Amino acid sequence: MSDGMALKIYRGRGSPFAWRVMACAEEKGVLYQAETLDASKKEHKAPEYLAINPRGQLPSLVDGDIVVCESLAALLYLDEAYPEHPLLPSERKERALVFQRSVEISNLQDKALPVLHLKRSNGDPAGVQKAIEALKGELKLWEEHTKHGFAVGSKFTLADTAVGPFVLSLRRYGASLKDYPNLAKYDETIRARPAFQKTVPPQWLESPDLDWLSDV
Ligand SMILES: N[C@@H](CCC(=O)N[C@@H](CS)C(=O)NCC(=O)O)C(=O)O
C-alpha cells in the first residue's frame, strides 16, 4: 500500500464491485491511484487493510483522511466530492430512478450466484433449473429497464457505473444474452466505453471466460 496520490481505490483482482468505483472515477475524470490486493494471498485480510475496511472487503476508497467502504457509497461520494462531470441527473424523478436502479441491481447477483454455485458443485438438475428460471425472470426485468439504451433512460448516469459491471459479468460467466436484445446492446455500449475498458478486473484479462450461465 504505497503513498502518493490523495485518492486511492483498493480493488480485488476480479471484483465487479471495485470495477464500479474505478469506472466512476474514470468517467468523471477524477485522478486516483489503484491499489490491487490479491485475495488468493489474503491481502484483503491483512491488518493494514482491515484498519481501512474492518470487513476485509473490496473495494474501499480513501481520499485523504476520508474512508468510504461499500461500492455504492463510494459512487455517491465521488459524484458529490468531485462535482465536475456530474453523473447524477438534476431532475428529481430521474435521480430517484438512478438511486433505485443502483440498488436494484443487487437482485441480479442474488439470482446469478445460486446458478454459479450449483453448476460449480454439480448440483441436482432440478435445483439448477429452478435457479436458472429465477435468473431468467430477473433478466427480463433488466431487458425492460435498459430499453432506452442505459440503466436509466437514454443517457449514461451514475446508475450505469453501479449496474454495468454486473451486466458485463453475465457474459464473463457464459450468458449469450441472445434472448435479451436490449441487455445485449447495453452490454456492448458499456463494454465499449474507455472508462470501463481501462478498468477491467485484471483476472478477466488473464483467464478465459466461463460457461456456467450458458443456459440463460
Ligand atoms: N457490499 C460490498 C460488497 C463487496 C464485496 O463483496 N467484495 C468482495 C470482492 S468481489 C470481497 O471483498 N469479498 C471478500 C470477503 O467478503 O471477505 C460493496 O458493495 O462494496
UniProtKB/TrEMBL annotation:
Spell out the family assignment given in the record's similarity comment: Belongs to the GST superfamily.
InterPro entries assigned to the protein according to its UniProt record, in alphabetical order? Glutathione-S-Trfase_C-like, Glutathione-S-Trfase_C_sf, Glutathione_S-Trfase, Glutathione_S-Trfase_N, GST_C, Thioredoxin-like_sf
Give one Pfam family: GST_C
Query: What is the species of this protein?
Result: Coccomyxa viridis
- Which CDD domains does this one have? GST_N_family (cd00570)
Q: What is this protein called?
A: G11330 protein
Q: Which gene encodes it?
A: g11330
> Which PROSITE patterns does the record match to this protein?
GST_CTER, GST_NTER
In this protein, which residues make up the domain named GST C-terminal? 91-212
GST N-terminal domain residues are 5-86
